[in-house]
């Protein structure tokens, strides 16, 4: 491996560590259309918080809320993944990919 490639590899490693640090600190929050459910996910795709803004939980609404929770979590994870991919794109640019 030539010295230029080694230098580039170390630079990429340093950038990856910095991006990973930023991702752990970043959060994405997604709220469903009704405003009753809010999910916060960090940049490593871990759910940090789920909030239900419901004054009374009517049993007829339980199934709908369960489906909304699942959908909202998936949207928050998708946004978090897009954010991570965007930040990691700078690394692939260095590689010429």
Give an overview of the whole structure:
The protein is of the alpha+beta class and 97 residues long. The protein has two helices and three strands. The chain has a three-stranded antiparallel β-sheet. β2 (37-42) and β3 form a beta hairpin. It is rod-shaped and about 65 Å long. The two termini are 19 Å apart. The mean pLDDT is 81.
What key phrases describe this protein's structure?
97 residues; 18% strand
Précis, in short:
This protein is α+β, with helices and mostly antiparallel strands and 97 residues long. Helix content is 59%, strand content 18%.
SSE layout:
Layout: H1 3-25, E1 27-31, E2 37-42, E3 47-52, H2 62-95
Antiparallel strand pairs: 1-2, 2-3
Number of strands: 3
Distance between the termini: 19 Å
Query: What Rg, in angstroms, do the CA atoms define?
Result: 19 Å
How does the major sheet shape up? Answer: 3 strands, antiparallel
Structural class: alpha+beta
């Amino acid at each position: 491996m030539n010295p230029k490639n080694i230098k580039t590899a170390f630079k990429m490693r340093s950038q990856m560590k910095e991006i990973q640090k930023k991702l752990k600190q970043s959060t994405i929050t997604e709220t469903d259309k009704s405003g009753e459910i809010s999910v916060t996910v960090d940049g490593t795709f871990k759910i940090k918080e789920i909030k239900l803004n419901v004054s009374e939980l009517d049993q007829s609404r339980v199934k709908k809320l369960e489906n909304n929770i699942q959908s909202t979590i998936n949207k928050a994870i998708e946004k978090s993944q897009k954010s991570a991919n965007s930040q990691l794109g700078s690394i692939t640019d260095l590689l010429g990919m």
